[in-house]
Amino acid sequence: MNPLDFSVEELYQLMDLAMDIEKNPDKYAHACNRKKLATLFYEPSTRTRLSFEAAMLNLGGSVLGFSEASSSSASKGESVADTIRVISCYADIVAMRHPKEGAPLVAALHSRIPVINAGDGGHQHPTQTLADLYTIKKLHGRLDHLTIGLCGDLKFGRTVHSLIEALSRYEGIRFLLISPKELRVPEYIRKDVLDKKKIPYEEVERMEDALPNLDILYMTRIQKERFFNEEEYLRMKGFYILNEEKMKLARPDTYVLHPLPRVNEISVDVDDDPRAKYFEQAQNAVYMRMALILTLLNIHVDEK
Length: 304
Ligand code: CP
Hints:
Blueprint: H1 8-23, E1 36-41, H2 47-58, E2 62-66, H3 80-87, E3 93-98, H4 103-109, E4 115-120, H5 126-140, E5 147-151, H6 158-167, E6 174-178, H7 187-195, E7 201-204, H8 207-210, E8 216-219, H9 230-237, H10 244-247, E9 255-257, H11 278-296
Bound molecules: phosphoric acid mono(formamide)ester.
Phosphoric acid mono(formamide)ester binds next to helix 2.
């Protein structure tokens, strides 16, 4: 299951549930008793895997899984399809990260239990988008009529692809796509999402040109692991560095998000700026992943 399969209405319901979980955590503390989440991570992760595991533990469930392909039977040549058939016997729900684009979809086609895409190659990262949407809604009170600046590696940065797709469903959204020309958003995002839905967007290279006009500045890391050529990566690595000096160009209500991990694209002197919201964003991911698990398992917690 790809969370972007949810309708706009269903996404609002998910965010309402996340808000209730955030306000009343005790109410949900046993909602997933005896349920098991399997985290199948064929690629490194800190936030996504651990926040999924924290989410299930917060709901009273249990977790099992692996954090690298080399410690699973994938290293012996087992296919994703066979792995998921077996995991369906052990768990109630799966979160899967895989370096191959489409691998979680293949898994879902062979699974008896819900499979959540926790990031597939340079393609999509839908549950990061759930956290992003929830964070933006909390900060601005809405998801429509916003100008969103996406900055950095827009070619390989899967979080950006999912976020563009999700936000394009709301009225009055405008994007400023800030990247070097080598790292612009892929053609399929431009054609199949932005052009198709007639979403206004502008591609710019200089962050300084975009900064005064944004409701959200969404920074991204240059995705070293997706580059074929080390030299090319090193050339791109320091292209954007957001610091307090540059933050002076931004409005008081321009909030800075980043899916993390960061490398050097946000200087640590920005962390104390009240507009820096990337650590809150990481916290919000737990509430949204709790809401997602409950929804996919069709578990409803009654009002007392
Ligand atoms: N945001 C995110 O996906 O972080 P991890 O790679 O640490 O999971």
